[in-house]
């Protein structure tokens, strides 16, 4: 009895996802390996990952045990641009904590979240700069990829004919309102 707290990308292929009842996850993926949680171990790994973050910036906004926004604006003279800092963070996490990290680099949290999702698993994605390049990057996304668009809003948008961000970009503003 219980629920899935997280799952591998391999399990997701079978339709397993977080918050799914364990019984349903087992039905969908009987060959899966089910592991009981070890919060003390997760918290220790999280502490070590966040210690890596602290070497690059004191401006850290934790989102969860394994996710944070890091403002590295003031760190460029020491460590390089956003991509260079992200590469250093990923390498440190891999070498010191033996974990992978997906990092999105952008000028704000909304875009950074989209970029980190695009970087999964174990990747790095830098949101393109410049208005046209940014609009093109966003246009390709499904509406459900937008931070804050959950299942119900996503279904509502799809029923209204909005499947991608490009559909929204092309829409009449009065209709959107």
In DSSP terms, counting alpha (H) and pi (I) runs of 4 or more, how many helices? 10
Q: What structural class results from the helix and strand content? A: mainly alpha
Work out the number of β strands.
4
**Element order: H for helix, E for strand:** HHHEEHHEHEHHHH
State the end-to-end CA separation. Answer: 44 Å
Q: Would you write up a description of this structure?
A:
It is a single chain. This protein has 177 residues and is mostly helical. The protein is 49% helix and 8% strand. It has helices at 9-12, 22-28, 39-54, 76-79, 82-97, 109-119, 131-139, 151-159, 165-170, 173-176; strands at 60-64, 67-70, 103-105, 124-126. The strands form 2 sheets. The chain has a two-stranded antiparallel ribbon with strand order 1-2. α6 (109-119) links the parallel β3 (103-105) and β4. α3 (39-54) packs antiparallel against α5. It is flat and about 50 Å long. The chain starts with 8 loop residues before the first helix and ends with a helix. The relative contact order is 0.07.
């Amino acid at each position: 009895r219980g629920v899935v707290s997280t799952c591998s990308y391999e399990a997701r292929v079978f339709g397993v996802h977080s918050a799914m009842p364990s019984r349903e996850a087992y039905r969908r993926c009987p060959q899966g390996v089910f592991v009981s949680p070890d919060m003390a171990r997760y918290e220790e790994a999280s502490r070590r990952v966040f210690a890596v973050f602290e070497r690059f910036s004191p401006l850290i906004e934790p989102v969860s045990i394994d996710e944070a926004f890091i403002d590295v604006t003031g760190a460029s003279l020491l460590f390089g641009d956003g991509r260079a800092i992200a590469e250093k963070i990923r390498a440190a996490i891999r070498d010191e904590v033996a974990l992978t990290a997906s990092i999105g680099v952008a000028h704000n949290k909304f875009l950074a979240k989209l970029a980190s999702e695009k970087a999964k698993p174990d990747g790095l994605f830098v949101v393109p700069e410049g208005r046209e390049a940014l609009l093109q990057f966003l246009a390709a996304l499904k509406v459900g990829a937008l931070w804050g668009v959950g299942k119900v809003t996503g279904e509502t948008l799809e029923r209204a004919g909005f499947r991608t961000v490009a559909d929204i970009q092309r829409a009449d503003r009065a209709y959107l309102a």
